Amino acid sequence: MDWTHRLRLRHLQILVSLAETQNISHSAERLHMTQPALSKWLKELEADIGLTLFERHARGLRPTAHGQILREFAVHIGNELDRAREEMSALRDGGSGRAVIGASGATIAGVVPQAVLSLLTRMPNASVELVEAPMDRLFQQLTQREIDIAVGRPAAKYHDPGIASEVLYEERLHFAVRPDHPLAQRKALQWSHLMAQRWVVWTRDIPARDLLESALSAAGRSIPSASVQSNSLLATIALVAESDMVAVVSERAIELPERWKMLKRLPLLLETPSAMTMYWRKDALGFAAVDGLLDALRKVARQPPRTSRAKSRP
């Protein structure tokens, strides 16, 4: 008999646990099994497959390349079953299904929450989960089927046959300070004024960091050596709102803290047009909440930034 016919959800949970703990006794305790029973089950599975899944050593186990591949399949299957349970639960409770969307720091305070609100206006019973993370992590979560949609800056490395993408809009980076910052009162702001301040900049794993460094290089400048690095928009806002630090923030990400009078953008612009892109799992299409959220993102992205709209009013 094909060994896959004997696998059950419980067995997949055992595989994932063994890969995580790399220890028979720890997994046995976690799964409420005896150690001999777990060892026997693993030995029989390896014999059925004809491959060694874990290397045994004095301190425990280590997944082989074969074991790691099977573990990834087990995680994917578990995620899909979780999604099926949550989708059915939402529908049973009178909802319109469920969507999980990931947002980078550049979109977490702007286009993504606006799209979620737009979706909930049209589908008030939809269930939405919003996750914030750097784009590298979000794309990984997409490929591992942990989220349905990710929105952030694109990169050539973000490629997978199961993932589709679409450019939503382009925007620039802005310098921002607290509203009563001395630089906010200057009518003629110079580079020398900015370079004399401590900056808050993105960590190197954020795509916008490369964008910022390229723009500064083109202007014959570089990031001040005493800068603070942050991959959190909330932390950046908190640092700048309570000090004389200068932040570099994307155009739409600054809208909300600016309306709340926590930050004020400075007139010196960086030549940094950058695309914001949404990525989605192709197999997630057809779920009402996912389809609705993709449409809402397109609709919100077509609207100009709020500051641009305000300037265009008579």
From TrEMBL:
<dbReference type="GO" id="GO:0016740">
    <property type="term" value="F:transferase activity"/>
</dbReference>
<dbReference type="InterPro" id="IPR005119">
    <property type="entry name" value="LysR_subst-bd"/>
</dbReference>
<dbReference type="InterPro" id="IPR000847">
    <property type="entry name" value="LysR_HTH_N"/>
</dbReference>
<comment type="similarity">
    <text>Belongs to the LysR transcriptional regulatory family.</text>
</comment>
<keyword id="KW-0238">DNA-binding</keyword>
<keyword id="KW-0808">Transferase</keyword>
<protein>
    <submittedName>
        <fullName>DNA-binding transcriptional LysR family regulator</fullName>
    </submittedName>
</protein>
<dbReference type="InterPro" id="IPR050950">
    <property type="entry name" value="HTH-type_LysR_regulators"/>
</dbReference>
<dbReference type="InterPro" id="IPR036390">
    <property type="entry name" value="WH_DNA-bd_sf"/>
</dbReference>
<dbReference type="GO" id="GO:0003677">
    <property type="term" value="F:DNA binding"/>
</dbReference>
<keyword id="KW-0804">Transcription</keyword>
<dbReference type="Pfam" id="PF00126">
    <property type="entry name" value="HTH_1"/>
</dbReference>
<dbReference type="Pfam" id="PF03466">
    <property type="entry name" value="LysR_substrate"/>
</dbReference>
<dbReference type="InterPro" id="IPR036388">
    <property type="entry name" value="WH-like_DNA-bd_sf"/>
</dbReference>
<feature type="domain" description="HTH lysR-type">
    <location>
        <begin position="7"/>
        <end position="64"/>
    </location>
</feature>
<keyword id="KW-0805">Transcription regulation</keyword>
